[in-house]
């Protein structure tokens, strides 16, 4: 292995050059800025901007948009933060020996890739950190050549609610773990070649031969899940037949739930949770997020009062997001999701040209997670997906008005005696 440090550089249009030393535990990759300052293809091949892209809710902080390319990231107000995030991601990729730089094979078309930029927020809706991810464009993979099986499970929302309710009922400890760059721990069984990252291009027609299941590959999630499941089985945790992402070690506890790269440990014994953490840290880079008091998991905000056996789940940040997404953040709230005298236009009315299915889909996700109070209204709206008109759109906006006035509603679990769960 070559332990030399490799210098990466990116330049913005103002002419300032940012240099960052990135530890190279693999080979001398020799990445540098693309010729003529070209940062590669900045078009998003998967989708076009529909005008309804969500801006994140950041509490008292003003809304911050997320860039769609390296060039855009380095021209904005947060260029230094995005540059730091870019180099941090590259350091992680090279440190895990994710690829090697090779000549482009004549008989293969390399998989394309792009940078994805994401602003992470804390439970109060304020900016927590800037995050960059180099992802493969999985839609450019060839079936049978670049991938085979791709299915990977994720914990069900009803499992999350049930297990957390049991934790509250029995006053169990809830502890969160986060696996850093989890997918890079997955092993590839196929030979995959990928283009070099936009903005970091080595001359000479080189491509990257992947050693690890980088984000965006169709089989990446499956490869990571298989590695993680095996690691848990090594310490005698077994899968539930009801949910493959729920693990237990005994008839009552402890339990572990897996949500992609986040793990929730639930049990009475802190010693066991420490043993699990040490075992996982021996295989992966794992952050201990500590005992849950108020933290985010799987799209929920968890608010746990262990002493009194009370747990609250809410998605107020998500509600604020969809309000802004559909231009309803300043709408007047109302008391009911749907009025009993709602009037529907006839079938001959002009079809709805607004993103009705998109809005109903967002509401369906919300009502199946933490807001059962809108279930009836959403069910009525879902019946008209194929033939919606303006009356249906107005009714859907009425649900948003109701959510505006009830944005702080939570799903609450209380302690009751004699509650036990056995995993089968």
From TrEMBL:
Superkingdom, taxonomy of origin: Eukaryota
For region Disordered, the annotated ranges are 28-47
Segments forming domain Reverse transcriptase Ty1/copia-type: 98-340
Listed name of the protein = Retrovirus-related Pol polyprotein from transposon TNT 1-94
């Amino acid at each position: 292995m070559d332990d030399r440090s490799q210098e990466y550089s990116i330049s913005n249009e103002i002419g300032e050059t940012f240099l960052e030393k990135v530890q190279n535990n693999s080979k001398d990759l020799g990445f540098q800025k693309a010729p003529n300052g070209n940062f590669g293809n900045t078009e998003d091949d998967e989708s076009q901007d529909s005008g309804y892209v969500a801006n994140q809710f950041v509490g008292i902080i003003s809304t911050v948009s997320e860039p769609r390319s390296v060039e855009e990231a380095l021209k904005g107000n947060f260029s230094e933060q995005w540059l730091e995030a870019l180099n941090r991601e590259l350091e992680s990729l090279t440190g895990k020996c994710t690829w090697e730089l090779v000549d482009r094979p004549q008989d293969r078309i390399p998989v394309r890739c792009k940078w994805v930029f994401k602003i992470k927020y804390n439970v109060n809706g304020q900016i927590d950190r800037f995050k960059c991810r180099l992802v493969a464009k999985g839609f450019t993979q060839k079936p049978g050549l670049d991938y085979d099986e791709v299915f990977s499970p994720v914990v069900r929302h009803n499992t999350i609610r049930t297990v957390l309710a049991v934790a509250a009922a029995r006053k169990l400890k809830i502890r969160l773990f986060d696996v850093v760059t989890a997918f890079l721990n997955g092993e590839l069984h196929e030979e995959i070649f990928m283009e070099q990252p936009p903005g970091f291009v080595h001359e000479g027609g080189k491509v990257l031969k992947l050693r690890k299941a980088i984000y965006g590959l169709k089989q990446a999630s499956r490869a990571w899940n298989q590695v993680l499941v095996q690691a848990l089985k090594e310490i005698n945790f077994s899968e539930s037949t009801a949910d493959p992402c729920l693990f237990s070690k005994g008839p009552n506890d402890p339990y572990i739930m897996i949500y992609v790269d986040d793990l929730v440990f639930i049990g009475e014994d802190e010693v066991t949770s420490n043993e699990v953490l040490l075992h996982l840290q021996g295989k992966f880079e794992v952050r201990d997020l500590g005992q849950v008091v108020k933290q985010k998991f799987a799209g929920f905000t968890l608010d746990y009062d262990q002493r009194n056996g009370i747990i609250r789940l809410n998605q107020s940040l998500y509600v604020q997001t969809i309000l802004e997404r559909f231009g309803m953040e300043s709408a007047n709230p109302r008391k009911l999701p749907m009025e009993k005298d709602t009037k529907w236009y006839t079938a001959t009315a002009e079809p709805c040209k607004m993103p009705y299915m998109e809005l109903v889909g967002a509401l369906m996700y919300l009502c199946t997670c933490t807001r059962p109070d809108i279930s009836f209204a959403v069910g009525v709206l879902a019946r008209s997906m194929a033939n919606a008109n303006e009356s249906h759109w107005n009714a859907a906006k009425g649900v948003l008005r109701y959510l505006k006035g009830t944005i702080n509603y939570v799903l609450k679990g209380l302690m009751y005696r004699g509650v036990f769960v056995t995993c089968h």
